[in-house]
Each structure stands twice: as structure tokens, then as C-alpha cells.
Amino acid sequence: MTQSKLTEKVPTSNSEPAYSGATARTDNWWVEPLLVAIVFTAFGIYATYRAFENQYYEFGPYLSPFYSPNMKEFFPDLPFSAALLILPFPLAFRATCYYYRKAYYRSYFAHPPGCAVTWFKRKGYTGEFDFPFNLQNLHRYAFYFAVPIVLILWYDALKTLWYDGGLHLSVLTLVMLANCALLSGYTFGCHACRHLVGGHLDSFSCPENKHSYKKWQRVTALNEKHQEWAWTSLISVAITDIYIRMACTNPSLAFQLF
Amino acid sequence: MPEASTRTATLKVYRGDREKGEFKTYKVPVEAGMVVLDAIHYIQQNFDPELAVRWNCKAAKCGSCSGEVNGMPSLMCKTRMDKFRPDEEIMVQPIKTFPIIKDLVTDVSWNYEVNKRITPFTPAEDANWTFYQEDIDRVQEFRKCIECFLCQNVCHVLRDHDRKDTFMGPRFMVRTAGLEMHPLDEADRLKFLKEEGHIGYCNITKCCTEVCPEDIHITDNAIIPLKERVVDEFYDPIGKFIRGVLGVDKKKAKK
Amino acid sequence: MSQYEIKEHDVLVIGAGGAGLRAAIEASSLGVNVGLVCKSLLGKAHTVMAEGGVAAALANVDAQDGWQTHFRDTMNGGKMLNNWRMAQLHAQEAPERVKELERWGAVFDRTKDGKILQRAFGGHTWKRLCHVGDRTGLEMIRTLQDRGVHQGIEVYMECTITKLFKDGDRICGAFGYYREDGRYILFKAKAIVLATGGVGKSFTVTSNSWEYTGDGHALAYDTGADLIDMEFVQFHPTGMVWPPGVRGILVTEGVRGEGGILRNSLGERFMFKYLPEATKNDYAANEEEAIKWTNAAVAGEKTDARRPPELSTRDNVARAIYTEVKEGRGSPHGGVFLDISYQDSERVKKKLPSMYHQFKDLADVDITAGPMEVGPTMHYIMGGVRVEADTCMTRVPGLFAAGECSGGMHGANRLGGNSLSDLIVFGQRAGAGAASYVKNLTGHPEIDKGQIEEAIEEMEAPFKRSEGVNPYDVAKELNKVMSTYVGIFREEGDLKTGVAKLEELKEMAKKAKATGSKSYNPGWHLCRDLHNMMICSEAIARSALSRKESRGAHSRLDYPNTEAEWSTCNTAVERSEGGMKLEHTPLPEMPSELKELFKKKEPSHA
Known about the structure:
The complex is a heterotrimer of chains A (258), B (255) and C (606). Chain A is mainly α.
């Protein structure tokens, strides 16, 4: 590929003798990417297993987030696990998420494994400019799909409060509500969302933009903790699913309060 | 207050140029509140007046004394000696990404050349110069930049993969963001960002933000919002079409 | 003989801080070819250290303000020793220069109605300082830098000028070296603008960086220009005093502008005691009134309360702190307490972000939780190269000066915020002056070959000395002499000792030795800088000795009063065969319509 150069002179980075080895860092920089890799991998294995398991995801009014919305209601004869129709959407949202990109580029791709740590020197590196990584630019579309999913999960959680003509509350319901809250914090603090509600504007003060500015401020407040939302909501989804899976075989674990 | 400490620290400082050089070891007495730059000055004044280091303000305001201390890109005037264990050897290197001139001094002129490529501030002829704090909060964050080039240094696209031929680096995305988000600027730098500055090379691994001594949220507040603007223009034809139909044009929103 | 590179420009600007950049931009926009030399990288000049703001009577916050009041404040602050014409031009043109910065992309803090916000500062009657948090200088230099690079100005970074050349009496060029590899460079230039800043490195405790070795002062002096008012050295009242490594680093006056309170170790708000009779009525009479003013300022409301005493002029506050410490009421590290922590911590972080980080990172002090320790630090020199007010030309044809290295504008004491405005007002005028001089120049001044060789020899000499002294030792000794004998309070005996010691040091400096290669060799650079530091130090000491009165920043213990007979003359020094020649020259007389401004005593708060 021929590209016009930015500058006439193109300097190169230093190497020996001032620099040798991958890094001169003496702290435990590798702990964080390693932990991230372990948790991601564990989640990935569990989610895949659950996606194919195709049972223990529903009892009474309770439905696992991995299987929501309940596709079996629309396609009773589905020859494979309904989760396979659903999981691609949250997966796409998280895979293209600006925070997760940082995390897995570091942990899985080691580009870079840590700051000021060199494992790879690649001539012609183009990052997210070329295929397939330029697909990351479609993050906002993943966001468009993630929004209805969050709304459906709220519906799933709220509907466990009212069934059989009466008001009920269980520990499992509380867990599901907490999960929805965390997922909402994650979804509506998304960088693409921040851009769409107001980040694209250059002036916040002109009257027609006042409303957008308010929304942008709210999304920004969530966005500042996007990493924390990403982790807590990932773990809460897993916990909610594990809990429902266990409660499917032993409904008393739902700890019905009333 | 621990003022009477008389410990000595051991510094290993790179002495040499790009091709030849070695790490020399110096013992420096540590005073309360001392920073790495103080130790370097001590060496200069007492052992070795030739030791080259670039510095000006010694108060983290000018961004001259960028280096790498125990492998971590940092301003030497802001790296306190008391953060190291008493027995720890402190290794001081010049920044890696730009060619060493001598010792701790590197040739950062490439950055000044890249800067020239950015379309400068372009207000309308008839601009009304009334604008409000909420319009410029974002821009003011970017203008805190002291051009220490630590973000340029740590960015793996420039540091490891040496894409100085076609990638502008975080510093200049910060500058561009400050111009693009200025309420009165009329120029359009998105095509430049995509096709010449190659914002797409950035894989948002956030090291620039981690090392920024001015605490600018480079990735979240400058690069990602610019990436989203580039998406608006080049990667989201459906969105662009809808905005066209609805008549929500960016330039009009600028007022 | 060593080789050198040759460059040719119509106008060569030396120094790329606010004044140098503004001069270069102006000259270049007038169509002449401009070169800009800076000792550091572009954008690192001392202007980035300026924090509080740029003074301009825009009247955005206090509608009563106008250039006349700014002019009067400046003259009063300078104890009437200012060049009236410079003070007038400065007050009149600062608003336009500030607005121009905004049109070039500077982003000042805003008022509620969308204009440039202004804050209070010592000695300014009204809220007058346009600012960007506490990093106004950075905003200014970045704006000018970005404007300049897109205008085709050629920039020579990390290049030091050591000599100016004349053809007859006219400027014709300059000689210098690149710090990077020590190679020499010769500039052929029809006009030269000096914008090299100050002389702080002659003192031990200073807010100034290594660059401040008085290069412009010395270059002008060596080339035949005269220096005036060199006895007036401003000690900023609030520098950091602890830890030792940061002693002297500036704590912006903005802290006091935002309501910061000074207390001694007994907890007394001592500034009430130190207000001079003449201006006492402009300040709050008691703590209650001061608090009322601060509360109104924080809320952005109008008030009839008068300013807190901490906002007295810098010379006065510096002396007060010095006295408190000397009399045993200082803080543990030899300063006093400056407290802003009683205000909402988010507001403090927003209004004074760099101060917050500076103390947090460098001293482990959280200024939103407790007081800072501060003490006087050498900050600025009012004296400098004498220039003609309208064009900034020195008495050497083709040699111009602007900013801190020029003299006259600030008289005996500079008001905070008047420096940044000085840079852009006189930077612009010097640029215009130089461009117009070049356009009207007849003939081509030529550089004499012999002079070039002399300049080269001078630079080579430190390497040739087998016996010699470490230049750092000389610098340290110089700092000690200046701080001990020519400090905040002065008296005849000390000053005489100081002058005598400087004579000894001058000899020592000539023996300063450099070792190693020419590549980025700070020891070698210092050998040459010492020459400049010596000239400035001697000028300061001799001028201080000659002025037998106290005025503004010049405080004589043996002559404690301000005397009318000294109010009509400047101290001027120039180079002569027998060494430094000193004389007292008459102050330009103010026209009567300006004198009128000082007659009617308006109440300062309507």
C-alpha cells in the first residue's frame, strides 16, 4: 500500500544499546493483562457451554439472560439452542466496546502487552485501519441492538415481581434487578452513545442543543466509569445465569421472601 | 516530617548517543522531596558537567524533561525519589521513540513537523465571539497539554511499530480534537484524520492516557470522540443518509 | 578555524516566549522574512510558567474599568518611575491584543454572559486579569506558537546566540551555536528583536528556569545599548519553600486573587499591618470586610466591600512575609501560610488546577485540605534594555527589545498580570517596528570577518583551558553573592561588598573550563552563560548601590523613604572602556492630560 508520508523525515525508535529486552519496567505490569485474560477465558468457556446446553434456563417466571428473549416462544421447533440466536448481539456489543478493545488488545493480542513493553515490532502495522479491525467502527450498530436487549432484561426481571395474580419478591429477583442496573450503566455509558446523544456537537450552549448537552453530561458521568461498568455487568450476567441454572434444579434456592 | 534523611540512591543513567553508549552508575544523596531531575542535576554539578538533560521549569509545566525511569515514561521533575525502595537501583533512560542526541536528550523535531500538517484554527469571518463555559470545557482539557510527548513516546504504534511515516500520534489527535470541538472553528479535519493522520491505527490501548502528566483523558475524551466523528463521515452511510434526510447537518449545528 | 552555517533573514527574533513569538508573527505578517531563535524547544519558554492571567481593561466583569484606570494602576504600582508612554500604550492596546489571541484560538475562561472572564490581582483596582484557570501563559504561548508555525516563520530550536554584530552603528547580524551538537551558526539580519526574558538564574531562590541568564540584557549591553532600572528586581511574595528541590517555584498570585489568606505561625492575618498609608483606603479595614469581598467574588456578585489586604502590590507583600519570617513568626520551613482550603474543594481544583497538582505531586500537600507554605522568590526584573516606546527600538539602530528584557514599562515594581500583556503589546510593536525599519533601510550592512572569528574563539576558549574552574561552582558562588548582598532588603555596606565580590567572580568566570565534546554539553553552555549573568548581576548591584532611596521593589534599609528627588530619574548603565559606566538620566515627562488622571482621587469602588 502506498501512502503519502506525514513528514519528510521519518525517524525511527531507539534500540541497543540504550534499549534492550522487552521492557525496563520493574513493577508487575503483567498481572493486570494476565488477570484479564483469565477472567475473559473463563467467561468465554462458561458462556459457550451454556449457549449449547439448551436447558436449565427457565423456571416459573424466571428466565436466564443468556436465553432472553425466549425464542422458544416464537420458534418452538428450533433445532438448536435459542441462546445461539441471542448471544451474538451482546457479544458484538462487548467485542467492539472501546473499553474491551483495550483489554483484549493487551491481554490476547499483546499489542502492547503493557505500556512501554515491546513484544512485537510489526512493519506496516495498521491497527484498526484495515479489515477486519475496521469493523470496530460499527460499534454504534452493536449499541443499537444492545438497547432493546437491556429493556427486555428489565421486563424479565420486573415480571418476576408480579405473577399468579400477586406481588412476590425473591433474592433471585433482586439479583436480576441488580444485573439490569449494571447492564444499563454499561450500555448507556457507551462511547458511541455519548457521541450520538451530544458528543458530535461543537456548541452546547445554543438553545437547540441544550437538551443534548444535558443528555451528554449524564452519559459522560456513566462513561467515566465505563471500565467498572463493563466488569461488574459481565460478572453480574454470569452470576445471574449461574443462579438461575442452579435454581432450575432446586427452586428453593431462589429464596422467595414473599 | 522526614527531613533529616541521609540515604544515598543509586542511579543508572544512560550515557552515550544512538549508536554507542552505556549505563553509568552514580551515588547521589537523597534530600526530602527530591525528584529524579534533582538527582540528575546533582550528577551534573558534582560528577559530570557534560551529562546532557533537557529541562526548563522543574515544575511539570513545560514538558521538557521527559524520560523513562525504571522503564516507565515520565517527567523526571515529577518522579519523586521516595517512591523507590532505598535499595532499588533507579534506571534513567532517554525516551525510546525519538532518536537519541546525547545521554537523556532526544530529537523530537518530528513532532513539530507533524503539527504543521494540522489545519489551524479557522473561525468564520463574521463569527460572534460570545461563547460559554460549557462550550469550551472539553477544549480546555485538551489545551492543558504541555507537549512533553510522553504519549507519543509510549504509543506502541510509534514506539514499537515505528509508523512515524503515517501516524500522527496521540498528541496531535488531542490538538485536532481541541480544534474540531471549538465552537467557532469551521474547518473540517476528518478526512485528514482518517487518511493522513491515520486515527485508525490507534487501537485505544490507553497507554497515552496512563502516562499523561497533565491528566488529560486522551483516549476517552479526544481520540474516541474523534473516531466516532470519523465514523459519522466515512463508516456509517446509513446514519449519514438519515441525517441528510432529516437535515441535521454538522456544520449547521455549529451555528 | 571552525566552520559555521550561514542563514539570512530580514528580521531575526531572539527568544520565543510570548514577546518573541508575537514579534515574529507581526513582522512576518508585514511581509518581511523572519527567523526565530530559541534556547529551548519551541513552546517551552518561560511564558508557560505564567499562571494568573493577562491584564487588560476589557471591563467584562467590572464595567467601570478602562485604560485610564489600568494606566494609573500601572504607574502607581511602578511608583511613577515607569516610562509613561509605554504604560499608556500598554493600557490602551492590551484589550485589543487579548481579543486577538482569542481570534487566534485561545480559549479563555468565560463569564456567565459568554465573555472573557477576569479576576482580581494585586494592585489592580478592578477585576482585570483574563485567565485560563492558572495556566494562562501556556494558553498564550500555544496560541502564538500554532499561529506562528502556520505563518512560515523559520524556527531555530535549541540555539543560543552569543554575539550581535554591527556595521558601523547599525545591526547586521548575530552569531550563535546549536546546543545539540555545538555547531556554529551565523545569522545575517537587518534587524534583531531581543525577547530573551529575565535574569533570575543569578539568584539562589528563583521562580525562573535555567534559560534566564540575562542573554538579551547582556547582548544589548555588549552591542552599545544601555540598560535602565536594573536595581528593580521583583521578588514574588509567594514561592514554594519546601521541599528543597522545588524551593522558589511560583505559587500564583491567583491564589490570593481567588481569596487566599496569608497567616503567620501565630495565626494572625498579618497583611493588615503592612498596608502602606497611601493606599490603605483601597483595602478592606478588617477580616469581616475581606471575607465579604471574597464571598462576593466567589459567587460572581457585586459588592461594596474593599479588596483583602493580601492583594496589595507584590513588593509590599514580599517585604511583609520576609519581615514576619525574620521576626520569628514564620512557618516550619521558613515561610508563611497561604490558605485557600476554607473554600469548596471542587472550586479550588477548578480555578487553580496546576497549583493543586504542583503541591500534591511535589510537596505532598493537599491545598484543598490545608495551607501552603510560601515565601519570597526572585521572579522578575523590571529593568532592562532602554527602548523607544512606540517602536521598541534601542539606541542601536536595528536593535529592538520587548518583554522582560526591555526596561521602562514597569517602573519600580510590576503589577501581576502586566507581564503577559506587556509581551503581546510590545511584542507586536517591536515586530512592527523591526519590519518598518527593515523596509526603510538603505544599503546592506555587512558583517566583519574578524568579529566572527573573535566570536568563535570566545566559544572555543573554555575547552582550551587546562587549568580552570567548574562553571557550576562559579554559578553557585554568584547566586550566593547576589542573594546575600543584593536581596530583598539592601544597604550600602552589603552592596559594596557585593560589587567587590562580583569583581572577583568576574575573573573567576573567565577561567571557567569545559570538558568533553561540544555535543549537548551543559557545562560548556554555562561557561558562556556566566558572561551574561555577570553583566546583569553587576548592573543590578551597581544600580542598587546608586539609588539612595527606597522605591517599589528596591528597599534600602539605610534609606527607607521614597524621595521626591529620585522620582525624576532612571539609573542607566552602559559599557565603556573602563568597565560599566553608570549615570542617572532624566525620566521622560508625562504630558499634562495624563497627569490629570492622578489628580482627581476617585473612590475606588463606586
